[in-house]
Structure to design on (332 residues):
């Protein structure tokens, strides 16, 4: 049973009427961060309206392709080969999500991966709203050093046992979400709910089947199932730099994106996803940089200081994840 870690009031006597009636705290592990990557494990903790746990569920999923960054999730081709396909667990997964708000750490990523898997299975994910715990922690003004799950967990005294294991990550998030939810209710804070629009169709490009390593950049080519990763030289961006990102506008292929500070997902995977979208990942910040991604815009890092000096637009990781979902093609 989850311990109550909310202070000072564990459960407000007056609960906001507009708050959802139930939540599905979700974590998925994947073969990577690109649009054609697949889910390899999933976990759901179902919570009631006040954040108390009702039950939990976990499954491995055979992605029918190379498992990707094994050094992160620990799931090898051999482990996944006998696991069910996503379409075989889609109904049970849906039963855990239906009628609830999907809660995740960097929720736009988990939602997009789930929506794509359901579209591949020619079904629709039964989710209409999501809540990102990064956004909620910001809204509550929690004094976190960064936006990693481990930092949120440490703030509430939650002990992680197996990082990057979907079931334990979901458990940790459920334990941290409950006091966050109750703190929001006590302060009548409006929850940062976002609309989820399910995909209705999907077409994947060919990908290597499970048990075979990918060739080339996009499929984690050259990665083995050990705990090491070889150095890679990123291919040059084939598109011209269209200039700076403008608030309220989508990203455009060729834009130069720099990263600074900690991210909730592995930095290399986040950069991979940017490259897959046609962006130029810059290792330094200059007047030509289109956008800086950082979860700590008040930090005194050289990139943040240069961004202020040059007037470079700055967004956090969650906002960048949303922007990656709709990148405009480069001009012909």
């Amino acid at each position: 049973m989850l311990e109550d870690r909310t202070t000072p009031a564990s459960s407000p006597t007056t609960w906001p009427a507009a708050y959802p009636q139930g939540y599905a705290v979700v974590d998925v592990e994947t073969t990577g961060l690109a649009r054609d990557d697949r889910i390899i494990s999933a976990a759901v903790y179902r919570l009631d309206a006040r954040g108390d746990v009702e039950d939990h569920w976990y499954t491995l999923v055979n992605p029918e392709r190379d498992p990707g960054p094994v050094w992160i999730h620990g799931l090898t081709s051999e482990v996944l080969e006998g696991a069910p396909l996503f379409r075989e667990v889609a109904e049970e997964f849906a039963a855990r999500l239906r009628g609830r708000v999907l809660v995740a750490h960097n929720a736009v990523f988990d939602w997009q991966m789930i929506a794509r898997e359901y579209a591949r299975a020619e079904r629709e994910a039964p989710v209409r709203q999501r809540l990102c715990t990064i956004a909620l922690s910001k809204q509550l003004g929690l004094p976190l050093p960064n936006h990693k799950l481990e930092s949120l967990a440490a703030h509430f005294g939650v002990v992680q046992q197996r990082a990057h294991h979907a079931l334990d990550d979901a458990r940790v998030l459920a334990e941290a979400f409950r006091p966050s939810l109750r703190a929001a209710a006590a302060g009548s804070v409006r929850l940062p709910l976002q609309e989820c629009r399910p995909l209705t169709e999907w077409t994947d490009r060919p990908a290597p089947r499970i048990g075979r390593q990918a060739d080339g950049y996009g499929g984690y080519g050259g990665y083995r199932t050990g705990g090491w990763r070889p150095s890679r030289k990123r291919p040059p961006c084939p598109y011209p730099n269209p200039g700076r990102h403008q608030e309220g506008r989508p990203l455009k292929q060729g834009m130069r994106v720099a990263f600074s500070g900690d991210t909730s997902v592995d930095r290399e995977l986040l950069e991979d996803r940017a490259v897959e979208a046609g962006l130029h990942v810059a290792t330094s910040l200059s007047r030509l940089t289109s956008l800086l991604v950082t979860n700590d815009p008040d930090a005194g890092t050289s990139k943040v200081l240069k961004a202020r000096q040059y007037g470079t637009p700055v967004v956090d990781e969650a906002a960048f994840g949303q922007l990656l979902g709709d990148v405009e093609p480069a001009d012909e």
The longest strand covers residues 39-48.
